[in-house]
Amino acid sequence: MAFPKTRQSAILGLHDGDATVRHRSMETVASAYWEPVCKYLRLRWHESYEDAADLTQAFFSKSIESATLIRYEPSKGTFRTYLRSCLDHFVLNARKTRNPTVPLDFDFASQQESPEELFHREWLRSLFTSAVEDLRARRGDLRFRVFERYDLNDSDSRPTYDDLAAEFGVTTASITNYLASMRRAFRKAVLDRLRDLTLNEREFRTEVRALFGIEV
What we know:
There is one protein chain. By secondary structure, the protein is mostly helical. The chain has one domain (about 10-100, about 110-210). About 65% of the residues lie in helices and about 0% in strands. The two termini are about 20 Å apart.
């Protein structure tokens, strides 16, 4: 199975002298953080879905206009921590000019969960989702179809290896091998996405160690 080549860090690309590279890098960052930012605004700041979406758009637009994210310094923490800090500051300023409303049917976050934990959880969810989408480009590959039916199955009843073997017309041993292969591919897809979202090798290795407890 062919793996995609390692991409240049999008965070590093924010500093590139080429405007096209900077724009593409900002799109990558915004895409990776859009859902975590929007969900964080709903849970941490109790914004309605519509207001959270509007604020997310405004935050990234303002970040581009003011070059806020370019001022990130890895010596002071991870990029996601820096982005969350910028987001909190942005929301506080935005609330000076409006009165936020709290939806009555809102599902509030657990009081035990800190803002850092909340943002981390949503960011990790986004990271995994993006990695799955990278693999989904291979949907014609039998191995991905098996992986989708088994590991990505969110129904109450998941098929057994024997069920999958009968469904796809292969041996149970093949199913075992396909899943092992796709799990390695998924791990690499996650690491590639993470490398995209860290500034340098040191930050990348630190994030991998913190997230997965492994050395790379």
